[in-house]
Amino acid sequence: MAQQQGPVRAGQDVQWRKCGACGAFVYGKRLDRNRKVCPECQFHFRIPAQVRIDQLADPGSFEPLPDAYRPRDLLSFTDSKPYPDRLRDAQARTGRNDALLSGRMTIEGCPLVVAVLDFTFMGGSMGSVVGEGIAASARHALAERLPLLLIAASGGARMQEGALSLMQMAKTSQWIAALREAALPVINLNTDPTFGGASASFAMLGDVILAEPGSLIGFAGPQVIRNTIREELPAGFQSAEFLLEHGMIDAVVPRENQREYLARLLTLLGPSVPELPEGTGSAPLTEPFPAVRTTRETVALARNIQRPTVQEYIGFVFDDFVSLHGDRAFADDRALTGGIARIGGQSVVVLGHQKGHDTTELVRSNFGMPNPEGYRKALRLMRLADRFGLPIVAFIDTPGAFPGIGAEERGQSLAIAECILELSRVRVPVVSIVTGEGGSGGALALGVANSVLMLQNAYYSVISPEGCSTILFGTAEQAGRAADALRLTASDLLRLGVVDAIVPEPVDGAHTAPYPTALNVRTALVQTMAPLLELAGDRLVEIRRDRFDRFGDPERQPTVDWEKSDEY
To answer: Strand pairing partners for 452?
Structure first.
């Protein structure tokens, strides 16, 4: 990122600003109207804390928290200027005691506590007063049971306060932990720059982490890294967009959209009204239906690339949806979509395998085969759902987990196993819907549910028919025979008790009528979820465990007369 530029005056009365990215001169009033964003290249200028509050808060709603503490020079620190002199300069320039502005406010009527770091005060560095201010904001949020929004613009820990500054990383983090344990949302909005002691503590610990476009965010600064490793850094290194690609943040949100985005998030993470809409589609089937095609043909139909994807189902089924990204460790896997949605008055966490309708989309989503980072993203969102008491809705459509070298190096088996384990223990309703392919453990990672639904022309199996044929018959040419033997259709799995109901779709497949099929999915979801919402968390876990305990239990596993079923 180019460095921010100071004001340049043309004449005495008109102030101009030079954009630090494209070099354009922008008239000051025009820049103000555009929220301090360059109208030529969308470069986001740094803004003071009060301006940030003014842009986000409902008019007149901000009430500052007490600001009684003043920084002290406990180390008698002096470099080119004594620390007290630096503090006095910053206080005179900003009109505040230190680099933090905090208070209560509302965003589109949603109440919250906010704490904003001001980069104009000694680079937004975190000393004892800033740390105490963030901790106090968290304590206030805890006492009032309100969400906490943390907006960072910081070079890191304040060197002039030595180890006392370092201790603020632990102090702030432990209060974020207290909010997490109390199931109160914490949202981070990281701006340019966010480094060091800020990024390695409170600024990266939120339930949802957002960033402004182009913001530099990291632990060590790029110059430090470059001088240490003696290598040129890649283009865009440590930018907000770089962090999104590498799974560290949930979204990059332009300044003009931040108020609306935060309001939607606060609503989705706020109290739910457990009222579900009436279904307007066809009711799910609880009895097997007569076969109209061979099993091999059903498999081919389930794989049809024109079938609706999870993102299309989300658009049709839910009233609102905010996509969340990343596993917080390596990457954002496009083969697995996740986020928070609303259906009626109820918020839910949505997970799903994502495919595509053409080669470009399929390659981008890795043909719906998640890597470990995809499953770890799902795991993160499962835990978020459990923490906030949000039901989980999972859409299954994958040929299987990706079987690549990198996937094995990054722990594919462990990632899948952790998802299966987590779904077995969450104290919220879980409903899974097989919409296309249900391929082995990669599908089951989203399938440990209180209730499992399945589209009429989907399949669900321990192995693909081609894989089974190759192993048993030495060739994939017997895939049709293997498909029949695997009993992988919706009717077969309903007889076995693997699925609970079948969602109708057009006889020629969901792709011929995506919206009516999605209405059927919505109807089945509402009918299935409604009774689950009335159950306590312990009971939901008990039901889920009992469901899977019965598979293989000779006294409870249904026995099917397959000859009679095949005739039917």
So the answer is: 432
Helix, strand, or coil (residue 190):
strand
Angle CA 108–37–220, to nearest 5: 95
Is 2 exposed, middle or buried (CB count within 10 Å of its CB: 0-12, 13-18, 19+)? exposed
8 A C-beta contact, residue 284 and residue 501 = yes
> In whole angstroms, what is the distance from residue 395 CA to residue 227 CA?
47
Burial of 26 (0-12, 13-18, 19+ CB in 10 A): buried
Q: Which residues of 108-117 are buried (b: 16+ CB within 10 A; e: fewer)?
A: eebbbbbbbb
Please count the other Cβ atoms lying within 10 Å of the Cβ belonging to residue 58: 15
Q: Which residues of 361-378 are buried (b: 16+ CB within 10 A; e: fewer)?
A: eeeebbbbbbbbbbbbbb
How far apart are the C-alpha atoms of 424 and 548, rounded to whole Å? 9
Give the integer Cα–Cα distance in Å for 128 and 145.
Answer: 25
Task: Return d(Cα 179, Cα 206) in angstroms, integer.
Answer: 10
Nearest CA to 195 among 222, 213, 235, 172? 222
What's the rounded Cα separation, in Å, for the pair 456 and 90? 67
The H-assigned helical ranges of 116-203 are: 128-144, 162-181, 196-199
CA distance 540 to 519: 26
For residue 107, give both structure tokens.
């965003």
DSSP label at 217? B
Residue in the block written with tokens 């999104």:
244
- Alpha helices, H only, 371-411: 372-388, 405-409
Mark out the alpha helices in 270-404 (DSSP H runs). Answer: 295-302, 310-317, 359-364, 372-388
User: What is this structure's pTM?
Assistant: 0.94
Order of strands across the sheet that contains 251-252: 63-64, 100-107, 110-117, 148-154, 186-194, 208-211, 251-252
Q: Are 391 and 385 in contact (CB under 8 A)?
A: yes
| CA nearest to 459, candidates 426, 487, 476, 437 | 437
Query: For the chain, percent helix, then strand, then coil, each to nearest 5?
Result: 40, 20, 40
CA-closest candidate to residue 547, choices 408, 424, 386: 424
Is 124:154 a contact under the CB 8 Å cutoff? yes
Element at 144 (helix H, strand E): helix 128-144
Q: Output the CA–CA distances (angstroms, integers) from residue 33 to 28, 231, 493, 535, in the order listed.
A: 9, 41, 60, 51
Q: At what angle do helices 412-425 and 372-388 cross, to 10 degrees?
A: 20
Query: Which region holds residue 5: left if phi is over 0, alpha if psi is between -120 and 50, else beta?
Result: beta
pLDDT along the chain (568 residues), means of 10: 47 71 93 95 96 97 93 94 96 95 98 98 97 98 98 96 97 98 98 97 98 97 90 93 98 98 97 85 92 94 97 97 98 98 96 97 97 98 98 98 97 98 98 97 98 98 95 93 95 96 95 97 96 97 96 87 69
As a whole number of angstroms, the distance between CA 17 and CA 397 comes to 51
The dihedrals phi and psi of 71, each to the nearest 5 degrees, come to -65, 145
Alpha-carbon span 385 to 408, nearest angstrom: 28
Residue 352 sits at φ, ψ, to 5 deg, of -175, 145
